[in-house]
Amino acid sequence: MLDAFVSAAGYMVGNPMSFLLILFSVIWGIVFGAVPGLTGIVGVALLIPFTFAFDPTEGMLLLGGVYVGSTFGGSIAAILFNTPGSPEAACTSLDGYPMAKRGEAGKALGIALAASAVGGIFGTLVLMFAAPPLARLALEFGPAEYFALAVLGITAIASIGGGSLVKGLIAGLLGLAVALIGLDPLTGTARFTFGNMMLLTGVSFIAAIIGIFALAEVLQRFADGPPKGEQMTQVSTQLPSFAEFMATKATLLRSSVIGTIIGALPGVGATTAAFISYSEAFRWSKKPELFGKGSPEGIAAPESGNNSAVGGSMIPLLALGIPGSATTAVMIGGLTIHGIVPGPMLMQNNSDLVYSVFIGMLLANILMLVFGLRAARLFAVVLRAPYQLVGPAIVVLCMTGVFALNNNVSDVAVMLVFGGVGFFLKSYGLPVASFIIGLVLGPIAEVSLRQGLILADHDIMTLVSRPITGTLLILSAVSLAYGIWGQIRRKPPSDGTPDAQPETS
Amino acid sequence: MRGIALIAAVATTATPALASDYPERTVEIIHQYGPGGGTDRFIRAISEPMQEATGQSFVPISITGGGGVPAFVTFMQRPANGYTLVSLSPDDVINHALGRIDLSNVQPLVRIQYDQGLLLVSKDSDIRSLDDVLAAEAEEPGGLKVGVTGSAGFDDALIGLFNEEAGIELGTVPFGAAEMVSNTLGGHLDMMYEEYGPTRGLIESGDLIPIVLFSDERLEELPNVPTAAELGYDVTLGRWRGFGIRPSTDAAQIDTLVSLFKDAAADEGYKKVEADSALQYRSEFMGPDAFKTFLDKEVETYSTIMNQLGY
Predict the structure, then answer these.
(1) CATH number, domain B19-115+239-308
(2) Which of A58, A153, A419, B204 lies 20 to 30 A from A385 at CA?
(3) Cβ–Cβ < 8 Å for A402, A206
(4) Does domain B117-231 have CATH number 3.40.50.970?
(5) CB contact under 8 A, A333 and B37
């Protein structure tokens, strides 16, 4: 292994072009991540034709760098505009935006960036040293285990959402209901499409998330009228102190582990990793009351979670030749075009390529730390522009971005409708996070439950008695009970004091 | 050499039926599969020599989901000006047979690839041959589960047809392509159905073992894997890939496209891509007329199969 490492390092030192490519790809990735709708998948897919001009190793460095950069980039717009640039950053806006609204945009971005780098480096190190055993662990996860994992994520609905359990459940169930629209994933029957052919695709959760966050935010701002000297005009780019950062170290470690494992599972990716990291951070936090109001842990958790999922999703790709996420599926296509056969022999037959990718991803994370801050400051300047200009620009970017995602005009319509939905949810105080959790995790739960039942000949006991499944389901039940109890316990005192604590005082 | 090329060039321009100023901008090819998947890569590979010949790009546009219907609907909304093509495969024929789309709205252009699929098991599986499958099914009908991609699509039709022929009841479970492989390797699924190209790495490493091939003849790459036909089950259906265009498109443009595709399919670089996935054996180039006849026959075949399967 050391030989391969040294040889790959030798290749890179002897090939300065590769450093340039990593630098370019990280910046490209941050931009694609930060612009709403233009996700990492689009960024990677657009670069595939360009990899023809390079050798396969350089091509993979390019794609890997974009993947790393775009996962962080999403958080910039999420924090500054409440507009997640990519779906995996949706969770980051829950606490990032309130902190930025307090005038601490720099601190929020700093925490997101540092957490991204920590998560990214953690994921890459695990990828380097433990890819084969972790790939084997991922194979233990069948439909039953996916179902239990999704259930664990969904139980978070009971905990997050701030105030009311009932409102959390309403929003969560609405999300689950919307997830049912489209072609039945197992039988191919149309559900709730009302004869509309384009609705057969179902509601694209990326389009929905962008509508709910970005468009709803723009609507909200315009509905509120011109700001009365709001604090957002003073964009402080002051970074968090080292002590502030170290305060989140337990969250960082927990989220990085969660992110890496979830990333390694084919079919579930960074978005799921971010949500589960967030809800676990909430559950274990000493100050859960700060969540949703600008908690540093609430930013650190999803960002370290989704960035460690990048390394995680490379694990099955490099160890087995099967993609761990949509972006790595595009990468596999890129490899095959170069005549490389993805599979378990890749690490032996193309060790130079594999180890260069490892080194490249580490470098990309470090470069991200350097350039991310500059990029963030650049974006923060936009906050000084009048919102009458910024708001419409965000809408235009969202529309083009959502269209570019799948070349599907109906996704744009979905985004517009969900802008209204987001506005409605907010005006009735229904927690947006619960809605999104239902929408993202609902389909995973549904499909895997039904697949699992077919495999178990419709015997539910066979399904739940599997060790990993059973453990995860018991954990879900416990956390559900804990969440409900926590809400009941918190109720009485909050009746006496005013519910809405002044967020900015 | 240059002389020959010149003559060829003159011969091409001299043919009156070809549109000389076409294509003058990018041609888009709509397909229903994910970016980086088999069809997406096929389009990129075949368009490479066409780009060299015309100086214009031919780009794949991926519109996924909805069983391929949204991709087809989008194609139908584009103008019939020769700049939008649609990829055609057995999935479209099945959608037509199920009444979801109407293939009479599309003019078949060329058929280029004809693939062949395999039933594969994990190296840890007790099943080692088709005989083992039949024995297990005789003991417990419907006990074995096969992973497939897509719901009520080509894979389901093929396994259904095989069930009919062999008198067994293999159950199918739809998965995403990646999860299907991980569930087979992890022992959650008994078998999976997939083509040679995407599974080559795992076959070569010995993690996946092919037990039967659905084709007319054995593959040179897998000399020990019997075909279903030689074991007595006449199932040779394969996934093919071709293109269609709107019927009202200018005839000269259609002729230009057909001759471009024909040259590209014979191109050395493209041939190598085909050979990487063992696609060269059954891939016979078909022009509009031959493809139309083939397509009509496919509609008949799949209508019968889907009927038998109760769709």
Answers:
(1) 3.40.190.150
(2) A419
(3) yes
(4) no
(5) yes
